Amino acid sequence: MPPRNHVAESVRALLAEEQVAPGDRLPPERELAARLGVSRSSLREGLRRLADLGIIESRQGSGTYLAPLDLGDLFEVRLRLEPLAARLAAQRRGEEDLARLADALAEMRGVLGDPQLFGEADVRAHAAIVEASGSLPVRVLFAAIADLLRHSRATTAGNDDLRAGAVSEVAAIVEAIRDGDGDAAEAAMRDHLAHVGASLSAA
Amino acid sequence: MPPRNHVAESVRALLAEEQVAPGDRLPPERELAARLGVSRSSLREGLRRLADLGIIESRQGSGTYLAPLDLGDLFEVRLRLEPLAARLAAQRRGEEDLARLADALAEMRGVLGDPQLFGEADVRAHAAIVEASGSLPVRVLFAAIADLLRHSRATTAGNDDLRAGAVSEVAAIVEAIRDGDGDAAEAAMRDHLAHVGASLSAA
DNA sequence: GGACCATAATGGTCTGACCAATCTGGAGCA
DNA sequence: TGCTCCAGATTGGTCAGACCATTATGGTCC
């Protein structure tokens, strides 16, 4: 259980549950803290994190507001950063990275029939690639946007054909990383993201 | 004066001043708070921000440590994200964005002889491009790495020829953005970053 | 109907305390 | 001498309550 994200994620869950729309005002800090059962100081550290991610915006005397977020913009960023992550992973991966990648890929194959579990395995595979990149900025930036990607992953995981396609695409990425072929890894990741992007546009 | 970054930047300044090396332990929170003249709660919100950026890492009972950071990795991320920012800026820029860009470019020309001022103007120009992109994720990610870029900018700004070159390169970017030509803007930004990268490698 | 102001609401900060995990150094023993 | 083990100190994590600064609200007065 990651302690750092705990409050931030609880707040995100609460917002989703109450259907707070972008631009809406959040409940006051004092009330949020009480509802989540934490002190206001701890809540504020969580809110600070969300504010740094651009998810919320606080205005003294007025309130805290949910910022608008364009999933298309988010995907464009992914489209630029994940191929880099794949390239670096191919150049720097260690034995432990390869093992993690193999595990994640095997799990994707194993839970192909379950959209929910498949989505989680997919997340782990992408996380393993980012981790293998060995780049601190890449890891940090992905951590920042990771929890914003839940929607798009849900879209992908919900379609049977997409899941099957994703497995072979991810397999190609993993293979290129294992071979240490940066160009191929980057290309394979672009290919994968192109398919994901197409399905997102259709949805 | 941006209140949000205040503590985080003060801490960064202090670390630079005391030559805290990556992996070193920072002074205890209570001492840092006293030295910066803020309460421990405010200090912690600042530290939380640095921790989210991957700059520091806290271990309960042990201390807070400065994480290692590879400037080369950072530049690779920049190399991927800034061209995207330039492209989006060309597609979405408003009149206000164009005015800011023109101002920043004019200022770069005006302070060409002063490395310090030039560096600041350069930062403003890049910030204006990011702002004009209109993409929340892009803005957020750049805010996250902005203060990590000081070193590389110092390198660029310290060389007379590089400054002159940077002006014409940035001018080309601004022109492409004004024309609404995303392809040209992205290419011009790549060109600019290639020059910056070459100077970094040399240094 | 509109301008103005007292009041409430809300985020920003501070102080001081206690808890939990970790580190450190000395006591005791083999 | 060298090792183990444990108690205390150190340090980050959290909490509670208070006050300040800014903004929103609603009523009053013209």
TrEMBL record, chains A, B:
Record carries keyword S-adenosyl-L-methionine: no
Keyword Signal attributed: no
Domain HTH gntR-type: 1-69
PROSITE patterns reported for this sequence: HTH_GNTR
Gene Ontology molecular-function annotations: DNA binding; DNA-binding transcription factor activity
Gene3D superfamilies, alphabetized: GntR ligand-binding domain-like, Winged helix-like DNA-binding domain superfamily/Winged helix DNA-binding domain
One Pfam assignment: FCD
Keyword line: DNA-binding, Pyruvate, Transcription, Transcription regulation
PANTHER family cross-referenced by the UniProt entry: GNTR FAMILY REGULATORY PROTEIN, TRANSCRIPTIONAL REGULATOR, GNTR FAMILY
Protein name (record): GntR family transcriptional repressor for pyruvate dehydrogenase complex
Upper classification of the organism: Bacteria, Bacillati, Actinomycetota, Thermoleophilia, Solirubrobacterales
